[in-house]
């Protein structure tokens, strides 16, 4: 029998208004977000074959759905593209917001710890733009009441000592993340979150304040799991942890923490090239009690990520105003910030300011702030971010035509990446090699040598050990 033309897929692509080459380029973008290396060579011919009836394999059907969902502004299912006979997989449509929090925590933990199932999830799911839609005011108002009425399913009673234990464990893994990257130790953190911290939420509490404090502490741990997943380039897993963390923060009635996590989701959306969603998330992080009740240091962090979202959205005036607000907030820091923002100081503000200025098309001022970030950061404690900052600094130097300076900076970046397991650091190297590509035959021996070092680093630098 011959192949049967996939009319549903053809109709959805026609609805986008895209040509087959543009469709392939859009699919490639989502594949890169998801680490779907088998799709990196996708071209017009693949789209043509799929329309003619060849069935895409592996994670391609799910990535096709997500690509078309983003373009058409509504959820596109496997049935919508004529692939309904594929095995059912978890939907990437934002439905996590409506799932019971403890049910989601248990399921996400199982998915993350079961290596076989985890590989299946990574192989079939994609970062969901639909999942970035923030629930309305009624959802936030209901969250605290829902948690307070949740019946106990175990006999244990959580105490302030349990809260402190969770906080200390989170602090340990946070420091490890800063030093070695998100790919180092995330499985251990996920195990602690699922098998120990989560168990305290199923029992009774030694008072309502302990309940709130416990939900906050578990939220911070789930947020860290998400941040480590983001850094390891496991973007869908990271997104689900972030949503879980927001839900826990909402049930704790902790506005500043919810804002902190929404800010992280905005940061991820900026990095993945979704400016409208990034701006929505960043604006939500600045709303009401999220910004209003935050410490000065945390306000500065929320403001500077808001600046980055405004910058990638093309709002120069708004971005510069937000940078100024962030500088004023950090300048008024009174030392009362929660530990989750202990990393955020002058070096971090300079890094994010530089990124915003770079995205506004001002590489010269961006270079000044990247240099300040490098000069003021405690390199050993924040080795991962230090290496990424150096990578970004080299890129803006090259953009200004300063090849020798860029090569020297990038060599320092490669030195700093030794022992780090980070998808973001790996992305720096990939972009470095892309920037060097046109110069390999005319840039001299130092360019060839740098490219060789970068190529070797890609073989040793792993997002997930």
Please explain how this structure is put together:
The chain folds into two domains: 7-81; 95-460, Serine Threonine Protein Phosphatase 5, Tetratricopeptide repeat. It is 68% helix and 1% strand. The chain contains 22 helices and two strands. The chain has a two-stranded parallel sheet with strand order 1-2. The longest helix is centred in the middle third of the chain and has 24 residues, at 208-231. It is globular, with a radius of gyration of 23 Å. The termini are far apart.
Q: H/E order of the elements?
A: HHHHHHHEHHEHHHHHHHHHHHHH
Order of strands, main sheet, comes to 1-2
Biggest sheet layout: 2 strands, parallel
Low-pLDDT segments: 86-93
In round numbers, the mean pLDDT is 88
The gyration radius over C-alpha positions equals: 23 Å
Secondary structure class reads mainly alpha
* CATH superfamily heading of the largest domain: Tetratricopeptide repeat domain
Topology:
Blueprint (H helix, E strand, L loop, with lengths): L6 H10 L3 H15 L9 H9 L7 H13 L28 H13 L1 H10 L12 H12 L8 E2 L1 H21 L5 H15 L3 E2 L2 H24 L3 H18 L2 H17 L3 H11 L2 H5 L3 H17 L3 H16 L14 H14 L3 H14 L6 H17 L3 H14 L6 H14 L8 H16 L5
Parallel strand pairs: 1-2
Characteristics:
22 helices; mainly alpha; 465 residues; two-stranded parallel sheet
